[in-house]
UniProtKB/TrEMBL annotation:
Biased composition (Basic and acidic residues): 11-21
Keyword Transmembrane helix (UniProt): yes
Coiled coil: none
Keywords: Membrane, Transmembrane, Transmembrane helix
Cellular compartments annotated: Membrane
Pfam families, sorted: COX3 (PF00510)
Region (Disordered): 1-21, 250-270
Domain of life: Bacteria
Record membrane topology: Multi-pass membrane protein
UniProt protein name: Cytochrome c oxidase subunit 3
Keyword match Hydrolase: no
Species of provenance: Aporhodopirellula aestuarii
Matches recorded under PROSITE patterns: COX3
Length: 416
């Protein structure tokens, strides 16, 4: 009897603490109810998101400090950022937040086909974002818009060859080749991934492995979305691509042509007319300040432009006017701006730019990995009305990533 009683006692203990007979497969053994499991996971993801906010807040503080110290540097260097590409990426991430929220709802209502479509759409948006960002990065690297120490942008030669980078800026041949062909290096991993997924899809179709084929189909579309983003970025970068260089060159090239034409017409005038036009020979811009005028053709050379404008104002104000002793006179010189396109100044802006957007891109890659895991589980129909926590947790993480970009876009791209 003692043996039977002990066995009965052990059986009751197992039923009370083992949870083998009461718990479904998706409920962890250390939770008593689905609500307890969901609330615990929700608390964990919120604690993780708080650490993410603290992590990014450090970079935002660095941005605020450097911008307060050098506002003209940030305003000048932001001209090199393509606002159209940044706006496209902002719209893509906002749409991905919609599809992610919709995916959470589909998991709650057990609409598995819609759930797969929504998660695949979120993944596709993430890939488009990375494709556009690859175009932005490769374009700037080839121009030399790099962090301090590596910055070598030259307005006279905005797109140097690899040999010129080696000869003029001291880079190694391998580094120069990477900078001039960086787009190929950025696209290579995604191309390998696309080929691998395509082979997987064909193999699973031929061998009639339905589950694997169901996983490979949406992933193939996701991989193709990256190259769709690359193509979109190339179109926008080429259409308004030389937004900081070609616009300046083209605008002032026309002005220079008009100036040459005016100078040619002026050369045919009589010497008497020339003397009548320039009443103050000491401030003759064409004779004494030709070098300054040539340098001032570029908007980036703000110092020369300010000096030229000041001399022109002096010439106009000095004509026929006498300034008495002890009387203050405004001769048109307010301040001479410094050139911000230097390694020490512009390099700091691009260092902050690559740090903030690069870390954000790493978070996008991490989100892609987790979303692929959710996609496979959704095809397997692991989620239901009582167990949809993983989709909800990943959705919160994805919304934070999107929110951070909403702050990065105006702070970096819209400085005007």
């Amino acid at each position: 009897m003692a043996t039977i009683d002990s066995l009965s006692s052990e059986s009751e203990t197992h039923d009370e603490h083992g949870h083998d007979h009461d718990h479904p497969a998706w409920l962890a053994h250390h939770f008593d109810t689905p609500e307890q499991q969901f609330d615990s996971g929700k608390l964990g993801i919120w604690l993780f998101l708080v650490t993410e906010v603290l992590f990014f807040s450090g970079m935002f503080c660095a941005y605020a400090m450097f911008r307060m110290l050098r506002p003209e540097v940030f305003e000048g260097c932001s001209q090199f950022l393509n606002t159209k590409l940044g706006a496209i990426n902002t719209g893509v991430l906002l749409f991905s937040s919609l599809t992610m929220a919709w995916a959470v709802r589909c998991a709650q209502t057990e609409e598995y086909k819609k759930l797969v479509v929504m998660i695949a759409s979120t993944l596709s948006c993430a890939m488009v974002f990375l494709g556009v960002k690859s175009i932005e990065y490769s374009h700037k690297w080839g121009m030399g818009l790099l962090p301090p120490g590596s910055y070598f942008y030259d307005e006279a030669n905005p797109h140097p060859t690899a040999q010129q980078i080696v000869d003029q800026h001291g880079f190694s041949e391998s580094a120069a080749y990477f900078l001039t062909h960086s787009l190929y290096f950025l696209c290579a991993p995604f191309l390998i991934l696309l080929i691998g997924v395509a082979i997987w899809a064909v193999y699973s179709k031929v061998t009639d492995k339905q589950f694997q084929y169901a996983c490979a189909k949406p992933l193939l579309v996701v991989c193709l979305s990256f190259f769709g983003g690359v193509g979109l970025g190339m179109i926008l970068e080429s259409g308004g691509g030389e937004h900081a260089v070609a616009h300046v060159d083209g605008e002032h090239a026309g002005d220079h042509g008009d100036a040459d034409h005016a100078h040619a017409d002026h050369s045919h005038d009589a010497p008497a007319e020339v003397a009548a036009t320039h009443a103050v020979p000491a401030f003759d811009i064409e004779s004494d300040d030709a070098a300054i005028e040539l340098l001032a053709e570029s908007e980036l050379n703000t110092g020369a432009r300010a000096m030229l404008e000041a001399k022109q104002a002096q010439a106009e104000m000095a004509t026929g006017q006498i300034v008495a002793a002890g009387v203050e006179a405004d001769l048109g010189i307010h301040r001479i701006e410094q050139d911000v396109q230097t390694k020490r100044q512009a390099g700091v802006f691009f260092g902050i730019y690559y740090c903030m957007t690069g870390v954000h891109a790493i978070h996008i890659l991490g989100g892609i990995g987790v979303l692929v895991w959710l996609l496979i589980r959704s095809i397997r129909q692991d989620f239901n009305r009582q167990y949809f926590g993983p989709v909800d947790y990943v959705g919160l993480y994805w919304h934070l990533v999107d929110l951070i970009w909403i702050y990065l876009f105006p702070l970096l791209y819209l400085i005007r």
